[in-house]
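Entry:
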Amino acid sequence: MPTEQQSRDTGGMIVAAICILIGVLALWDTFDYTDADSFVFPRTVAGSMIVFCIALIAWCLVRPIDVVSRRAESTPRRIGLVTAMLVTALLMPYTGFLLSGLLAFAAIVWLAMYDPWTRGRLIVYPLVGAAIVLGFYVLFTKVLLVPLPSGRFF
């Protein structure tokens, strides 16, 4: 049964602050790297994470306090999201990045979807998911030169 309460996303801001600390530690660690190929990727990811987390905290502080509807079914969804990410990460050495990424995207969208499925969503979401996974594959392999698992079964 949903209950309503006024709140800021305090949990999100706490996690964002923790991620900022992790990002700063990751950046600090890269200063010992001498080869540019070694430090470009971690610095890019850590810097982006810090910027986006600061933006999230700022957004949470400046926006009006929302009336948040708490649903009882959100905990199983959260557990399902973490499980889906872990399972697809464990499958990645066997299925490869592309297939595992597509499976992860499909599972996460299915678990996280609160709104009813429409014909448009059934068409657009898989196309967008495939474009995102393929985009990350190209970004990692061609631009950032990160070797990704190709899979043992394929």
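The chain has a mean pLDDT of 86.
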